[in-house]
Design goal:
With 562 residues, the protein is of the alpha+beta class. It is 23% helix and 27% strand.
Amino acid sequence: MGIPLRVVAALLSAALIVSGCGAGDGGTEVASKSDLSNTKVDTSGTLFESDRVMEVNIEMSPADYQTLRGDGRQLAHAALGCSAEFEWAHFQAKVSVDGEVLDNVDIRKKGFIGSLTASRPSFKLNFETHEPGRRFHSLERMTLNNNRQDPSNARQCISYDMFRAAGLPAPRCGYARVSVNGDDLGIYTHVESVKKHFLRRNFSSDAGNLYEAQLGDFGEFTKENYQLKTNQEINDRSDLNRVVEALRAEDHNLPGLLGQVVDLDRFLDYWAMEAITGHWDGATGNSNNHLVYRDPNSGLFTFIPWGTDGSFGLFHPLQVGTGPLYRYTIIPNRLYGIPEYREKFHQRVLTLLEEVWHPQAMNAELDRIRDLTGASEADMKSARNFIAAHDGRLRASIAGELVQRELVIADQSTVCRRDVVTEITASFTDGIGQLEFIDEHGDMVTAMASAQPPSKENSGVIPLSFGSYFITVVAPDPVATRLIFLSVEKSEFGLGEIAFQGVSTSLFLIQTGGPQGGFLEAFGGPGYITFTEPPVLGQPASFEISAELWFLGDARIFGASN
């Protein structure tokens, strides 16, 4: 029986899972290397003061900045298992932070898929790449997040504060107003980079292996999606194998064996806090956005939260019905299947709710961050709704009154599938035009098509595409009608060329009406949508498309024939 086409979004999400500068402003002070070098006194706290907004000014070659803006993975790369092939382009910049100037700073764009945008890129700054040993207020790096998935500017800082209140290691957080070459990009969240400095603050040693997950888990194959961030020259990943081996145990032996390689007591706290903060895109809900560190003294792995800009989520947008007690990955799924540990987890959630869940204080913190960062009250609505409803959802789930859908990550190798990569072109004048592409069999497909006027309304097919406008292209055919769903980043929406990247500006090709029903046929890859006339919402648009087309082949995502 076919699945309605409107559910293609959820199925698509499953595919993603398997898958020279001028001088600074007057009054600034150029910091000497001795001022910025590592010292015994840790002054990093001055960069994470919660009651102020830092001023970060970046100056770099305009050509380099234009290249940086367009850098980033395509959705096709993630969905077809090719993310690991991607490498960021690095540039040099002059950076001033509250008037302290640093030359020769390494800068790159940051983000996986959901936070990628050309208009307000997230940034990674590295102070020691070009000047080894240099530190800025004890830090090697700064991470500046664009808050694309967090219009309240509040979710990251509040979530990390809650993890720390539960006694867990978590990044510190603050705010910065960022400009590039004089262009004010607005408020960013400054999140502490999880590197050696963080490890020294939170563990007895910084000499252990630190891994960052990009759809990584402790399976025979999915462990390869953990990226080693320390000790790369030695590159000994055997500690991951010990966790994988422990997870092969039968239920009655599992806690004892797993507890020899993972700090289970801390993990129960961490698991509970991902549920309490609604961090659906983390370790237990999506095998993403977290780090694990093996303390060489204890020999145990500890989980560290990351990427909480999507937290405060009442519902899991990629795996509908699987929350709020996340158990998508192997460790929480196995432990939840053991009655003793299921009860321990439930009790840990209830205990931590009493300790860290204080709605009045949380709403007051939203008020403070709103006023500090200039967010609107409308921007706080989703976070306030979460605070109002989430406690009840958690308790209902524990009581068995809210049924969750069981879904467990597949332990399979991530293989970059470039089976068929072709090209698509299209041209439209006032919404009427023609598209042309080579299909997966090598045949040329040419079709007359109509483009619906640009709209604020998402078709439902493109997940995590808030901050975008949408265009649906229809190419009718008696045998198999093609639909193209386009998203265009709002801040880029206008005359001229716009690069496809992430989900903010993206393309999906869907076939419907044929003998196989409806299915997602291909993702758009690198390329552009170019508006030849200034586009207006609600009015037929004139535009052209030129992009790679990545066909799914046997990995097609099916819908229905209606």
